[in-house]
Design goal:
The complex is a heterodimer of chains A (106) and B (394). Chain A is α+β, with helices and mostly antiparallel strands and 106 residues long. Chain A contains three helices and five strands, in the order ββαβααββ. The radius of gyration of chain B is 22 Å and the shape is globular. The longest helix of chain B is centred in the last third of the chain and has 15 residues. Chain B is 23% helix and 29% strand. Chain B has nine helices and 27 strands. Chain B starts with a strand and ends with a helix. Chain B is of the alpha/beta class and 394 residues long. Chain B has three domains: 173 residues, FAD/NAD(P)-binding domain, CATH 3.50.50.60; 112 residues, FAD/NAD(P)-binding domain (3-Layer(bba) Sandwich); 70 residues, Enolase-like, domain 1, CATH 3.30.390.30. In chain B, helix 1 packs parallel to helix 7. The chains are: A alpha+beta (106), B alpha/beta (394). Chains A and B meet through helix 3 of A and helix 1, helix 7, strand 23 and helix 8 of B. The complex binds flavin-adenine dinucleotide (FAD) and FE2/S2 (inorganic) cluster. The site of FE2/S2 (inorganic) cluster has 14 residues of chain A, from loops.
């Protein structure tokens, strides 16, 4: 089974089955992964689904587009490979993807 | 036992499990669907861009896995002495902890003809399905109420090819919630999208033989209509709480821990009224972010932990290619600072200050300003006017 892995800021890992066509945020909330809220339901309006993509994956998953970038720009926990997980639509080829979660969602 | 299965109820049930609640969890809802996202009802869902399945807050499998029982029923009464609720399909259920997440319902228009066929309200997925059936291209839709929901509905229906009019009774759209400059901006973009926006338009009556055919305004003019959608605000569903003897003041009164006046009952979402220290008064918010936060706090309280409702209120709205994000509540502002020009183009931010401190911001296609404002307001609002006016665009 294809999986994605979430690593919390203090090192706990959570794995969730990769569901093609759904967003990484949806997969996280479906599997009760702590640390991802997704308050706006995936509209890139709230910023509570921030993840930091493992640099080894950064190129494959691509970088944020303009609106998403604006939401991330002011975030104090922002890193070069930060994304909003609601804007990352999963495909099979992402089997094994690992993302880190910031300490706070804001 | 959680009463009401929408944003607040679904979050509360999920957070109870995450917080370590070992007992049974029953989520009672009366819409006959899985809890779904409500904001898209006037936006993408009305515009036909997604299905109700895609809008489910969580899938059926999630509730099964978390051992949350979904009950399609409606709670008629709460008996606090025995700790039981009565269900409308008969029978009753016992509870140890009760959570009221009954939300709000639309305010009805008190004008003759408001019950004609072809007159709709917009709150639930069932409402939207009826509107969509009637919304064929070329038809004339008249929207009564120039608030966020009315304007979003106008944008979605005009996108579907209908001829849309918006009737607003006061002198400007969004009058209760934004500065005149922001109202003027939304007025302009709707006109640019060929929506007929009429302010100071008081509805006298709705006319038609079987179906609605027009809306008569004070002054005598009749605006022709094939369908009418009324969006004049909501009223909280507090009857259940009031009948059970809980304190109600506009909404069900809750403290910082989301407890009602009965320590065995918590409440969250649109049905609650909370004394917000930040604003020094009781406020009943109508937003997903607040429903979700209150639900998380209520779940913690029910699990015997102590969390507080503290988050800054925020809200968003989508109309055409305009994404508005609002941080904070602007009540009591005495000054605004604009960054960008609301009279031209489609991006700017309107900052609201009170005694020189930032209290709220309306950010139009400016996600960066939104996140910036949130942080400044949370820190206490100290910011230089120059910084606001010069803040990097984006
Ligand atoms: C068209 C529309 C657009 C919106 N857009 C936005 C937006 O862009 N951003 C935003 O933040 N907010 C938006 N909102 C507001 C947001 O949807 C609400 O704040 C949110 O739904 C509140 O959630 P809730 O669970 O408290 O209440 P509700 O969503 O009102 O749900 C309450 C549920 O409880 C059920 N219920 C009530 N009484 C009983 C009973 N006795 N027994 C069983 N079930 C019962 C009701 O049928 C309902 O399903 C919008 C609302 C609407 C209608
Ligand atoms: S879920 Fe709100 S920004 Fe991603």
């Amino acid at each position: 089974m294809a999986v994605v892995t979430f690593v919390s800021h203090d090192g706990d890992t959570h794995q969730a089955p990769l569901e093609e066509g759904r967003s990484l945020m949806q997969v996280a909330t479906e599997n009760a992964v702590p640390g991802i809220d997704g308050d706006c339901g995936g509209e890139a309006a709230c910023g509570t689904c921030h993840v930091v993509v493992d640099p080894a994956w950064a190129e494959r998953v691509g970088s944020s587009e303009a609106g998403e970038e604006g939401m991330l720009a002011m975030n104090p926990e922002r890193e070069p490979t930060s994304r909003l997980s609601c804007q990352m639509v999963l495909c099979e080829a992402w089997d094994g993807l690992t993302v880190r979660l910031p300490e706070f969602q804001m | 036992m959680v009463v009401g299965a929408s944003h607040a109820g679904a979050q509360l049930a999920a957070s109870l499990r995450q917080g370590g609640w070992k007992g049974e969890i029953v989520l009672v809802g009366d819409e006959g669907t899985l809890p779904y996202q409500r904001p898209p009802m006037s936006k993408a869902y009305l515009a036909g861009k997604n299905t109700l399945d895609q809008l489910a807050i969580r899938s059926a499998a999630f509730y099964a896995k978390q051992e949350i029982t979904l009950l399609d029923d409606s709670v008629q009464a709460v008996d606090r002495t025995d700790g039981r609720v009565t269900l409308s399909r008969g029978g009753s259920l016992a509870y140890d902890e009760l959570a009221l997440c009954t939300g709000a319902r639309v305010r009805r228009l008190a004008a003759p003809g408001a019950d004609l066929c072809g007159v709709h309200y917009l709150r639930t997925a069932a409402d939207v399905e009826l509107i969509r059936e009637a919304a064929s291209p070329g038809r004339r839709a008249v929207i009564i109420g120039g608030g966020y929901i009315g304007l979003e509905t106008a944008a979605s229906l005009s996108g579907l090819g209908l001829q849309v009019s918006v009737l607003e009774a006061t002198e400007r759209v969004l009058g209760r919630v934004t500065a005149p400059e922001v109202s003027a901006f939304f007025d302009r973009i709707h006109r640019e999208e060929a929506v007929d926006v009429r302010t100071k338009a008081t509805v006298e009556e709705l006319v038609g033989t079987d179906r609605v055919q027009g809306v008569v305004l004070a002054g005598g003019e009749t605006v022709p209509a094939d369908l009418v959608i009324i969006g004049i605000g909501v009223e909280p569903n507090t009857e259940l709480a009031a009948a059970a003897g809980l304190q109600v003041d506009d909404g069900v009164v809750i403290d910082d821990h989301a407890r009602t006046s009965d320590p065995a009952i918590v409440a969250a979402g649109d049905c609650t009224s909370h004394l917000m220290t930040r604003y020094g008064r009781r406020i009943r918010l109508e937003s997903v972010s607040s429903a979700t936060e209150q639900a998380k706090v209520a779940a913690a309280t029910a699990c015997g932990k102590s969390q507080r409702i503290t988050a800054l209120p925020w809200f968003w709205s989508d109309q055409y290619d305009v994404k508005l994000q609002i941080a904070g509540i602007n009540t009591g502002y005495d000054e605004i600072v604009l960054n960008g020009d609301p009279a031209e183009g489609r991006d700017f931010t309107c900052y609201y200050l009170r005694r020189g401190e930032l209290i709220a911001a309306d950010c139009v296609n400016r996600p960066r300003d939104f996140m910036f404002s949130k942080q400044v307001i949370i820190r206490g609002g100290q910011v230089g006017r120059d910084e606001l006016a010069l803040q990097a665009v984006g």
